[in-house]
């Protein structure tokens, strides 16, 4: 089975940034909930061990984001949007995130005034990508 090129690019970008990020979920009152979590790949999904709040949020609202922050001045943040599934295991909760979109993002040095986006973005996994 071959891995789609966008997914290979996403794997490489995550590998460059290390195995931890911020998992962003949404609470019942629509407020954001951010936690720092180690992540790993299992097949084509990104897995994180999480607490009860993050797991409950993901069950109720499975659209989540992973944020890999900048490592140095001028670097890109990596933002991965995905669909979460929650599983119990080894005394805790795990969130399995199937990536649906990923982008490297940083403020633009000189924004293009004719553009609606004022950032320097590099899509890695466009929202229109279909994964196996």
Folded structure, characterized:
- The chain is an alpha+beta fold and 132 residues long.
- The model has no long low-confidence stretch (mean pLDDT 87).
- It contains 2 helices and 7 strands, in the order H-E-E-E-H-E-E-E-E.
- The protein is globular.
- A hairpin with an 8-residue loop joins strand 4 and strand 5.
- 17% of the residues lie in helices and 50% in strands.
- 23% of the residues are buried.
Task: Detail the topology: elements first, then pairings.
Elements (H helix, E strand, L loop, with lengths): L4 H13 L2 E7 L5 E11 L2 E6 L1 H9 L2 E6 L8 E13 L2 E16 L11 E7 L7
Antiparallel strand pairs: 1-2, 1-4, 2-3, 3-6, 4-5, 5-6, 6-7
Content of β-strand? over 45%
Shape: globular
Helix content: 10-25%
Secondary structure tally: strands: 7
Radius of gyration: 15 Å
Put the structure in a nutshell:
A hairpin with a 5-residue loop joins β1 and β2 (32-42).
List keywords for this structure.
globular, alpha+beta, 132 residues, 7 strands
């Amino acid at each position: 089975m071959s891995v789609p090129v966008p997914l290979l690019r996403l794997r490489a970008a995550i590998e460059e940034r290390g195995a931890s990020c911020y998992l962003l979920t949404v609470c019942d009152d629509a407020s954001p909930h951010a936690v720092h979590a180690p992540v790993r790949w299992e097949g084509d999904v990104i897995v994180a061990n999480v607490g009860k709040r993050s797991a409950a949020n993901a069950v109720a609202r499975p659209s989540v984001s992973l944020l890999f922050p900048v490592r140095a001045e001028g670097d890109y943040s990596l933002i991965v949007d995905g669909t979460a599934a929650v599983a119990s295991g080894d005394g805790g909760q795990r969130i399995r995130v199937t990536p649906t979109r990923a982008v490297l993002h940083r403020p633009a040095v000189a924004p293009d005034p004719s553009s609606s986006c004022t950032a320097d973005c590099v899509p890695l996994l466009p929202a229109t990508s279909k994964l196996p």
